[in-house]
Amino acid sequence: MNMLTEAAVEKAVDQKMNTIPYKMIGQDVSVYYGEKRALFDVKLNIRENTVTALIGPSGCGKSTFLRSLNRMNDTIDGCRVTGKITLDGEDIYDPDIDVVELRARVGMVFQKPNPFPKTIYENVAYGPRIHGLAKSKADMDQIVEHSLQRAGLWNEVKDRVHEAGTGLSGGQQQRLCIARAVAVSPEVILMDEPCSALDPIATAKVEELIHELRENYTIVIVTHSMQQAARVSQRTAMFHLGNLVEENDTDKMFTNPDDPRTQDYIMGRFG
Amino acid sequence: MTDIVSPGQGVVVSKAPERRDIGLKRRYAAERRFRIYGIAAISFGLIFLAVLLTSVVSKGYTAFLQTAITLPIEFSEKTIDPNNKRATDPSVLIAANYSVLIRDAMVKTLNLNASSRPEVRDATAMISKGAPIQLRDMVVADPSLIGRTVNITLLADANVDSANKGQIDLKVDEKNRKVNDRQVGWMNQLAETGALHKKFNTGLFVNGNSSRPEAAGLGVALVGSLYLMLIVLVLSLPIGVAASIYLEEFAPKNKLTDLIEVNINNLAAVPSIVYGLLGLAVFINFAGLPRSASLVGGLVLTLMTLPTIIIATRAALRAVPPSIRSAALGLGASKMQMVFHHVLPLAMPGILTGTIIGLAHALGETAPLLLIGMVAFVANAPATPMEPSTALPVQVYMWANEAERAFVERTSGAIIVLLLFLILMNLGAILLRRRFERRW
């Protein structure tokens, strides 16, 4: 019954979707790894304060697209991006844009939880510290507490924030990574299969968290799980063989997709 | 378990198909054989290690003890300063004939016939030829000794030392050995009164080189090796780590960096003597640095150690999981911050281990030092790295070339000291690794 009302609310949100401004715009984005082309002229826009799910079979280019949104592809040798991606209308591949600043605005959570081998506190405090976001120790304490609360981890770890972050369970580690990303106050959070290494209970917690984070952040999530995409996202984009097949409201995507390939993939006929 | 093998009534159990021959016996035999090879290989190595250590220790441990003879020396004014001029001319004390004091003390202690020259010569030969200098230094330091009789412990001659340690076979004909029967008799006589005894050989660690084995020590070599290690550490660690970080984290991967990588790996395999020649040509002949100086030795060993440190550091950097790099970059850390805040601390145990192994290698290196002249006979400890010096392995090499019997034990003793330092360094490497090691 609660589910129903929630679904109803989401529906209402979805109907307002068209009025939501675009946070990031991708125009004819192509990515090459050396000679190999991984993405073919993808046009995909990311709406503000919305969860956009990227789905598709393995090797379809969804992670590649995600990583080009905060230029993590730059770290891969021989990787080249063409086309245009904007954040608030600014081209993020413009030579004037500093990649360090971009990544402070577009945070990332990775597939495998990757906390630093430091204390929980240090994990969260690292980002604010390098960007000079805290003026004092008290400031930093507040940022850390706030970020851990945002990530729904505070109650579990408040008595042991000075213990190793690597000592947490897998699900807690992933939420710690989310807290770490949140601590820099990014505008966009990219999540690359954040639940693929987690058990169902931890997954549920992270999904709930994504739900809450949507209020303040624009979220792009890559997932292999159709159910997850359906549960957490308002917009879904389907990739296949480096092409964007379809992008639509999640509800429509899972009930009445425009493209037969989407239908086949969602039904489990390939992928 | 019994539940499984005895099912309840009326339960039908499936029939096992005929067993296939899947070569289990052969596979297990192969595994057993391999284990035996492995154990054999390890035992082989351990046996040789045991033989090496036993041989070195059994030959060398006696070098840490030294035979000394305590004699009542009468500092007679008649011998030292017959004209009583020491108040105005202190050089009298330096020029005095202190051998006479020793001769007189021997004659008195052993009740010798002072007029029989061969007898007196044999007796004084039992005392080290360095003893008069020891007495001279005592008198110069404290002239009030003159006129008093004091019991003083003097080093025994190397041959007496060897005989006392049982290293000279006394059954051999008297003419063919370094200690004659008369001296052996006196040795026993002195030993009975406790005048002749063994004491810990501090001189081995303090003295410089000497042609008299009983006075020869590793002092200069220890100081020289210390300078070498400091120079190698100070130069090769920062240079090596900086080079590795640049190559591993910042440099683009292209033909040029590939070429550099191949060259570094090849440099690690270049025979050390070639580095010696290089050092001779560049540092001594071209740059004009002093010959035999530990500075030059340190520079040469730095060149030799660099490839080792670079290879170890790069391996350690590469072993840091890429996820840590992504995490740092994803938060907006610059490349430099990523390296120095996350990658380097995690690579530290590997870097330190590589460095200490490189240093240990350098500590035991002899060939390049021979070529740059660190094989010199140096009696006084160098005050600076610019002064002539030797190093521990070179001292071993030099003593191994000496003819005297007493140098055999000293060679082994020096090897023990060298091995101890190597063990200490390796222990340090293990402790450091434990301390810095973190799991992720």
How does this structure look, described?
Chain B: The chain crosses the membrane at residues 34-57, 226-247, 267-289, 295-317, 338-363, 413-432. Chain B: InterPro entries: DUF3333, MetI-like, MetI-like_sf, Phosphate_PstA. Chain B: Keywords: Cell membrane, Membrane, Transmembrane, Transmembrane helix, Transport. The complex is a heterodimer of chains A (271) and B (440). Chain A has 271 residues and is an alpha/beta fold. Chain A contains eleven helices and ten strands. In chain A, helix 8 (200-213) links the parallel strand 7 (188-192) and strand 8. Chain B is mostly helical. In chain B, strands 2-1-3 form a three-stranded antiparallel beta sheet. Chain B contains 19 helices and three strands. Chain B starts with a helix and ends with a helix. In chain B, 62% of the residues lie in helices and 5% in strands. Chain B has helices at residues 2-5, 24-60, 77-80, 91-95, 99-110, 117-125, 131-141, 158-164, 181-193, 203-206, 219-250, 255-267, 272-286, 294-319, 322-330, 335-363, 367-371, 392-400, 406-436, and strands at residues 65-74, 149-155, 196-200. Chains A and B meet through helix 3, strand 6, helix 4 and helix 7 of A and helix 15 and helix 16 of B.
> Any idea how many domains of chain A?
1
Mean pLDDT of chain A: 88
Biggest protein-protein contact in the assembly: A-B, 27 and 22 residues
Order of helices and strands of chain A: HEEEHEEHEHHHHEHEHEEHH
> How many discrete structural domains of chain B?
2
- CATH fold topology of the largest domain in chain B: MetI-like fold
